[in-house]
Write the structure tokens for this entry.
Amino acid sequence: YLNTDSTNAGMWYSVGTAYELKNQPDDAVSAYEKSLKYLPKFEQPAREIYEICRKKNQWDKILNVFQSLHQAEPTILFYRLILAEAYLNKDQFQQTRELLLPVFDQQGLPWQVYELLGRADMEEKKYPSADNYFQTIIDKDAHNPMGWLLKGFVLSDMDSLTRAEQHYRHSLEYLPDNSFLLSFHGISLSRLGRDEEALLPLRKAIDKDSTNINAWLSYGFALNRLNRNSAAALALEKVLKLDPTNLTALTTLVMI
């Protein structure tokens, strides 16, 4: 069919999907690019390119594709968001702001706008403004874990350890089963020297997600500091099963 209508965007999208099913991601991206060449406002192939390239950290490729799309369809917010994320991952924080601030006053913006602007500010240690962006995510939807996690990171980076612990504890009122929030609550308790208290949220985090390396590692460290060496060793061994290259766990385990 493409031999008779090579400009059919839908057909090129189908070709890209077929390549993905055959585990040929590079060929899939090429087909999706052709789909977008003939119909730049066709968002689905753009989303597929983003997902494939993001997994491979191909941010230059994403910039190349989405700069053209954004120029052709400047009103499509998704293209603007992906460009902003690519610039953020290349440490080009001002470009991230320049893309997002012009649309900041629009109604009904997705939470990712606040996330990206906040992360750009956090990377440059502009903590008060980063905190405001992340708090906005929480205010818009208290059941979105990203706002809680990122605001907690800001508080920790500012060495506001007590506030960070209180913040994570508060987050669990809305998301009591979130393994990441549980683990960071435990970590914040440990950083305050409250290892015994930290064991409970860390153990809960592990129970909710047995692959949570951060939780296992922090659990092992807390047990080690409490001189519960056998249990600490088991936790650190679990870390190494999940990530055999984890030198922090290996070093600590050797010293127990």
